[in-house]
Amino acid sequence: MINTGSMTETGSMTETGSMTETGSMTETGSKFADNLARVQERIAKAAGRAGRKAGDITLVAVSKRQTPQAVRQALECGLLDLGENYVQEAQDKQVLLPRQELASVRWHLIGHLQSNKAKAAVAVFDLIQSVDSVSLAQAIGRQAQAAGKVQEVLVQVHLGDEATKSGIAPAQAVDMAGEIAAVPNIALRGLMGIAPGGQEPQPYFQQLRSLFEALPPAHRQTLSMGMTGDFEAAIREGATMLRIGTALFGPRTN
What we know:
It contains ten helices and eight strands. The protein is α/β, with parallel strands linked by helices.
């Protein structure tokens, strides 16, 4: 069984806006459940081909620009790991979700983070996957210390040569990961990377896996790689965490 957690929720969503018809909600929930079943089947088959267990792979539902209703559907289907690109969007969704649901959700920041947003990010996210400099880690560490928290993070590695992507250069990743791990109130859990679009992802995932394996054992807990278009290749190369949005929620409308 893929690591998705468990949760059921029967409360009303009418206060959150557009989706008020019971029939529409049921139809949307059924569609999401069908999408999730297909994704889980693909994960299980890819894991089997790689000689791995699907239960060792965590599925993060990327809810960027999805409605609170869509997020609720994910929670109702047992997906308790949610990925967001923006601090403010995660804050807005958390306000609209019942407190009992928030207690079970694990929030992941997967988008670029500026140092001036570190305080808010520490307050909102359980795992910050996009740490790409020592200075950012230090800003996060200071805010975590002030909040009485040890903040879990991943180091984002820049795979390929896309100028629009963030991350630490592969040649510097292991050394900088060591510096980041030494920052007070930071708990380094592993690495995250995004394969460049339009190219065969396998070599990039192999590269990230090699860097991951060069980390000390205490920092080799999470290898986050693989999205809707390439997660099966990521599983072959040892991904322990997938970030999937479109295959679950469908194309974003905005």
